[in-house]
Design goal:
alpha+beta; Jelly Rolls; Arc Repressor Mutant, subunit A; 2 domains; six-stranded antiparallel beta sheet; four-stranded antiparallel beta sheet; 11 helices
Length: about 290
């Protein structure tokens, strides 16, 4: 859906309203609304009550909040957690982009009290990538034409809140590991695409330098080397287990041409793709 609010860029913004099932209401944390808004200078929202809790991730720009707990300023890269059952006001005086999710559920208030008791209503995370990616995933699931599973949606919401709840505890490297796990899953799902380091770093909400450093620490390979290795492993599988042509394998594995594929394969494996297929193919008679 497109927003009808003033000072929201309609062309660049969208949201979805979800009516949870009775099972979700009594069992899970459940989604009510989710969106990605581009606010214009002068945006202001004031509500006396809106039965939900709200998570906002400020991707760029900033938001100012006036809540019962006080006044807060959220800059790019920060999160806000708001109890919308109480009066709340927020807005901005500059162009701002934000991901947001309205949720509720039987444990929602307990999460809210625990998190805000430690971090306040606006806070930064040591590594925001994991929670930001989960919010993006929630939005992607919400607008999927095939719908979504409410238990899986509940897991994503819980993942975000758990990341908030554990922020002040030891274990930052483990959270960074999850960011790299997300990056690896993204690589596997987009192997036929260029997959630049810049794109992967943006997906992880990290600078290129920091992403390369963390990725190598967690995997032992640079992102570029990992992508090449993943492409070659997939190519090996297709060579042995399918009749796909070299051209088709190049397309599926993200190599720009059969010559580039052949050179990379021989350099890594020691034989050409067709030689590898001939020597490793398993036939029914075997």
């Amino acid at each position: 859906m497109k927003p009808a609010e003033r000072n929201v860029d309609v062309d660049k913004s969208s949201f979805l309203i979800h009516t949870p099932s009775a099972v979700a209401r009594r069992t899970f944390l459940y989604l009510l609304r989710a969106g990605n808004f581009c606010y214009e200078s002068g945006y202001l929202l004031e509500r006396s009550s809106f039965d939900s809790f709200l998570v906002i991730y400020v991707k760029s720009g900033s938001l100012d909040f006036n809540l019962p707990q006080g006044r807060f300023h959220a800059s790019a890269g920060q999160f806000a957690l708001v109890d919308c059952y109480a009066k709340h006001v927020y807005g901005t005086d500059e162009a701002t982009e934000a991901l947001w999710v309205h949720f509720d559920g039987i444990m929602a208030r307990a999460y809210f009290d625990f998190i805000t008791g430690k971090l306040g209503n606006v806070f930064s995370l040591h590594n925001p990538g994991y929670a930001a990616n989960r919010l993006r995933q929630i939005n992607d699931m919400a607008v999927s034409p095939s719908g979504f599973s409410e238990p899986r949606m509940a897991k994503c919401i819980t993942d975000v809140l758990t990341e908030f709840a554990s922020e002040s505890e030891p274990g930052a490297p483990a959270r960074q590991s999850r960011v790299i796990e997300d990056a690896i899953a993204y690589i596997a799902a987009h192997l036929d695409e260029p997959l630049t380091v810049k794109e992967l770093a943006e997906h992880a909400y990290l600078s290129e330098y920091h992403f390369i450093r963390v990725f190598k620490r967690e995997t032992g390979l640079t992102p570029h080397a990992y992508v090449i290795d993943a492409r070659l492993h997939t190519a090996k599988y297709l060579l042995v287990n399918s009749d796909a042509t070299l051209k088709r394998i190049c397309e599926r594995c993200g190599f720009s041409s059969t010559s580039v594929f052949g050179a990379a394969f021989k350099r890594a494996v020691g034989s050409s793709p067709l030689e590898y297929r001939a020597s490793n193919r398993v036939t029914e008679n075997d």
